[in-house]
Amino acid sequence: MASPDKAFVQLLLQQQNIVHKICRAYCPLEEDRRDLFQEIALQLWRAYPNFRNEAKESTWIYRIALNVAISSHRKTRPQPIGPLTKIMHQIPNEESDTEERVAMLYQALYTLSDVEKALLLLSFEEKTNDEIAELTGLTPNNIRVKMHRIREKLRAHFLTIHST
Amino acid sequence: MNNEFDDMKNLWQNAPAAQIALNAQQIEALLAKRSKNALQNLRTNLLWEFALGIILTVLLLYAAIQAESTAERFAILQVMFVIGPCFIFYFLALKNLNKGISMHRPLRSMLEESIQFWQMALRIYFWGGVLLLPIVFFAARLWRQQTIGTGSLQFFTGSTPVILFKAALPGPWFQAWFGF
């Protein structure tokens, strides 16, 4: 493959936080995250010649990064919330409050399926149901139903956390 | 729940995910590395097998040219013409695999394409194994009968199931080597 052009490297530099966040959402383990980041970067680079600025850069990155994250084989699967994780939530640690809340956010994400996670992350990015439909190929009605189920799942997750 | 949902959304939008952001050199280094995905592994394996087939065919051709008797030359050529065309299969498989899966499509159609693609890849390996192994063995037996005659090369003697069992013995090693 030819060496990447400066424009692409700059784009990835500016938008790398999106890719890092998606990697963390799909890979609980650091080792898997590094591999996924590389795979997403390579796929973005491969698709870059066809990027015509018709979509926002972040939307284009979300589309490819989520597709790669969902279709990639990962060695490890997200761990369900186990007793140790519950204990961890009861013990104050040295992390800042934000870091702790971010860790809890990712724990909540790990309870969702890969596709559910994609829908939730797109809604976090303020995408409308029509935009999510275009990105995922699902119908807006299907997305509404799925989003309702995701909220129910998250509600159950937070109830479990708060009850311990 | 709405509060928690909004809280999650704010966290997602504002929290940095990576403790250390990559710089331009690190990104360039990352892009210079080869992909470790399953498709790339499959492509590399097929490429090795295809190269091995080409080398084998060339060696057989050389052996046929160097053969001392016409009978031996004819036997080697027969083997070559049985094995050689099988590697066209590898060439076509590689050609199909090189198309890859387009990641810029909507998620649903990308997944549909992925399923079709991997089903095709599985078929390639299935038929590759099912067809090539007996072809190679019958070609070897043909060669043995026409050049050496019966009684020598003990490894190739015995019934076909026994031969296939012997051939399968290095299988786990190959599987580990290919990363399956």
Helix-strand layout with pairing:
The complex is a heterodimer of chains A (164) and B (180).
Chain A: H1 6-26, H2 30-47, H3 57-71, H4 83-90, H5 97-109, H6 114-124, H7 129-136, H8 140-163
Helix pairs in contact in A: 1-2, 1-3, 2-3, 3-6, 7-8
Chain B: H1 2-14, H2 24-32, H3 38-66, H4 70-83, H5 86-97, H6 107-147, H7 160-168, H8 171-178
Defining traits:
heterodimer, A: 164 residues, mainly alpha, Rna Polymerase Sigma Factor, Chain: A, Arc Repressor Mutant, subunit A, 2 domains, 72% helix, B: 180 residues
Account of the protein in words:
The complex is a heterodimer of chains A (164) and B (180). Helix content of chain A is 72%, strand content 0%. With 164 residues, chain A is mainly α. The relative contact order of chain A is 0.11. Chain B has one domain.
Number of domain modules of chain A: 2
The string of secondary-structure elements of chain B, in order, is HHHHHHHH
> Which CATH C-level class of the largest domain in chain A is it?
Mainly Alpha
Spans of at least 5 consecutive residues with low confidence of chain B: 151-156
Percentage of residues in helical conformation of chain B? over 70%
- Strand percentage of chain B: under 5%
- List the quaternary state of the chains: heterodimer
**Dominant shape of chain A:** globular
- Give average pLDDT of chain A, whole number: 83
Structural class of the helix and strand makeup of chain B? mainly alpha
Tell me roughly what share of residues is in helical segments of chain A: over 70%
Output mean pLDDT of chain B.
74
Q: How many helices of chain B does DSSP assign?
A: 8
Major sheet of chain A: size, sense and barrel closure?
Answer: none
Which architecture of the largest domain in chain A does the CATH hierarchy give at level 2?
Answer: Orthogonal Bundle
* Rg from alpha-carbon coordinates of chain A: 17 Å
CATH fold type of the largest domain in chain A: Arc Repressor Mutant, subunit A
Q: What structural category arises from helix and sheet content of chain A? A: mainly alpha
Q: How many angstroms separate the termini of chain B?
A: 44 Å
Largest contact between chains: A-B, 54 and 39 residues
Query: How many structurally independent domains of chain B?
Result: 1
